[in-house]
């Protein structure tokens, strides 16, 4: 595979909103334990939107300049010397990869809990990422894809892994599940819950387009939460009442067994606490924009278990994803992929993602015909 000296890339170069496109960025060099991936498709993450807007989190987190992006699929273009000697990976393999780079030396890493590494670095956040023709990644982070998984699903396995990690944090079989937040990860989580045997899956959000996606992906009921009242407390009270009405409609008499908080909304979380069954289990993936109070009586006297989720378990989540995708999950959650754009049309792609009405937005880095030819198709 011929490798050029320069490549196209999408960068954050200045401390302001927006991204910069270049066709003359140096192709990264491959060291002994790395692989070079020829990127074919990427998808836009909520993190990328924070970077695009250059909000307070981005301002305190990003080193500039930076090639952004961390959700990708591609083919191995080159192997580092040590990888070529000791790894089953081959040039031409179709791969995606874990976007969290861990230290390997802290207590959690050495205990096999790399997803809890205190020294984690993010691809496309603290080091150059995947919105480019080529990406260098440590070989240990690479995940080979079976032929049965199309490229587009490889490009969204990073966020799908967040949904899998959150949903499977607790036993779902026969349980009633409440998901607050119908962004792409929340919608995929709804499909996962149904795929593995949850009884009822109720999804809440403020946007009708996203609720429609949730229904298409298997939600038993998708509920638009009230936002009309001027007072936040009144909206929360109305949401709790709407959820209780939903429970009666579904024949639920005690509350939700499992809560998956995907929105980062204080109001959504408080409404979830109010409608959980005693002994219920909550997994939190949504990140609030600021600290907020909750009614701790709901947690203590109901005996609730609350667990924070970050990223994916390395690498058990990836094995579970591959098994579920090849076992019917792709068809169930297909509606979550809503838009595809050529990479050079990134401004339109980001505008679509920022609209709040889209699911996963894909950037194509290689024409489909060229990708097929390179793969021998």
From TrEMBL:
Recorded GO MF terms: oxidoreductase activity; zinc ion binding
Named cofactor requirement(s): Zn(2+)
Domain Alcohol dehydrogenase-like N-terminal: 33-147
Superkingdom of source: Eukaryota
InterPro entries: ADH-like_C, ADH-like_N, ADH_Zn_CS, GroES-like_sf, NAD(P)-bd_dom_sf, Zn_alcohol_dh
Residue ranges occupied by any Alcohol dehydrogenase-like C-terminal domain in the UniProt entry: 184-325
Keywords: Metal-binding, Oxidoreductase, Zinc
Similarity remark: Belongs to the zinc-containing alcohol dehydrogenase family.
Full protein name: L-threonine 3-dehydrogenase
Species, as recorded: Cyanidium caldarium (Red alga)
């Amino acid at each position: 595979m011929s490798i050029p000296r320069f490549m196209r890339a999408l960068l954050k170069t200045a401390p302001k909103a927006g991204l910069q496109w270049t066709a003359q960025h140096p192709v990264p060099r491959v060291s002994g334990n790395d692989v070079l991936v020829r990127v074919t498709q990427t998808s836009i993450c909520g993190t990328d939107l924070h970077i695009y807007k250059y909000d307070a989190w981005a301002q305190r987190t990003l080193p500039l300049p930076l090639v952004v992006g961390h959700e990708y699929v591609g083919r191995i273009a080159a192997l580092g010397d040590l990888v070529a000697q000791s790894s089953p990976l081959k040039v031409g393999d179709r791969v995606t990869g874990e976007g969290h780079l861990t230290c390997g030396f802290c207590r959690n890493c050495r205990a096999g809990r790399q997803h809890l590494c205190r020294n984690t670095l993010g691809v496309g956040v603290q080091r150059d990422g995947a919105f480019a023709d080529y990406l260098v990644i440590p070989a240990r982070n690479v995940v080979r894809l079976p032929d049965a998984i199309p490229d587009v699903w490889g490009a969204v396995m990073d966020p799908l892994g967040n949904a899998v990690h959150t949903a499977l944090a607790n036993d779902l079989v026969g349980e009633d599940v409440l998901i607050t937040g119908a962004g792409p990860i929340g919608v995929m989580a709804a499909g996962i819950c149904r795929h593995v045997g949850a009884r009822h899956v109720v999804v809440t959000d403020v946007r009708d387009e996203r609720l429609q996606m949730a229904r298409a992906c298997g939600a038993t009921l998708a509920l638009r939460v009230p936002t009309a009242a001027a007072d936040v407390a009144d909206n929360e009270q109305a949401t709790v009442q709407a959820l209780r009405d939903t429970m009666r409609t579904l024949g639920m008499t005690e509350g939700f067994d499992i809560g998956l908080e995907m929105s980062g909304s204080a109001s959504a979380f408080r409404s979830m606490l109010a409608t959980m069954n005693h002994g219920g289990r909550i997994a939190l993936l949504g990140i609030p924009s600021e600290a907020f109070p909750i009614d701790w009586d709901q947690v203590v006297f109901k005996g609730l278990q609350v667990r924070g989720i970050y990223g994916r378990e390395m690498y058990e989540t990836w094995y579970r994803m591959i098994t579920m995708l090849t076992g019917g999950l792709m068809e169930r959650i297909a509606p979550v992929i809503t838009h595809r754009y050529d990479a050079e049309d990134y401004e339109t792609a980001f505008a679509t993602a920022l609209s709040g009405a889209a699911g996963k937005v894909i950037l194509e880095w290689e024409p489909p015909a060229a990708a097929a030819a390179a793969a021998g198709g």
